[in-house]
Amino acid sequence: MAILKIARMGHPVLNRVATPVADPAAPEVGRLIMDMLDTMEDAEGTGLAAPQVYAPKRIVAFFVSGARAQREDGADGGVKIDDVPLTVLINPVVEPLSDVMALGWEACLSVPGLIGEVPRHTAVRYRGWTPKGEEIVREAQGFHARVVQHECDHLDGILYPQRMSDLSTLIFTSELSARGRVEVEEA
Ligand code: NI
Q: What is the DSSP letter of 19?
């Protein structure tokens, strides 16, 4: 196990299209995934994509807290949102389920110190393979869908500021308290 260095915006590894993983069960893929999970935990990230640790492969990891999703999505009616368990996806594909977009704040371990409002599809279907070679197919909404879109964008060389429609909301995290918001998680 190892905690890896995280690439920051400006490094070319973050701007290139990552290559598909030929054999999800290969030992070196397993080692990379273990290191990604160690790095994500150490950095207290919500998610991490392999290019962020200088490995231009199509692998993402994420965990979505149900409580966090509840706060982000402003869910009312008392319907509890379940946690999305720690998920590793190899060669993931994301497909929007509608044209509806919503703005939400995002931060990124590769863009430290900043946060911005990013439009994302509110509902997506995604699929990919686990390290055991099992296929995962899920439908996601709201914050869950946002996290998946953010991570999978990394595999196409896209960082969240490139998705922003209004760069005036790209601000320092330290200014957030002035806006009455203190919760930031990076992905
Ligand atoms: Ni990110």
A: B
Query: How far is Cα of residue 160 from the mean position of the Cα atoms in its chain?
Result: 10
Edge-to-edge strand list for the sheet holding 171-172: 101-106, 114-121, 171-172
Look at the pTM and tell me if it is higher than 0.90.
Answer: yes
Nearest-angstrom CA–CA distance, 187 and 184: 10
**Rounded to the nearest whole angstrom, what is the distance from the C-alpha of residue 28 to the centroid of ligand 1?**
23
> Helices 142-155 and 66-73, interaxial angle, to 10°?
100
Asked if 84 contacts 144 with a C-beta cutoff of 8 angstroms, the reply is: yes
Residue 72 CA to ligand 1 center (angstroms) comes to 17
CA distance 131 to 30: 7
Q: What is the mean pLDDT of residues 152-175?
A: 96
Distances (CA, A) of 93 to 68, 75, 122, 127, 181: 24, 27, 16, 5, 32
Catalytic residue among 151, 175, 185, 186: 151
Fold of 12-179: Peptide Deformylase (3.90.45)
pLDDT mean over 58-62 = 98
Assess whether 151 carries a catalytic annotation: yes
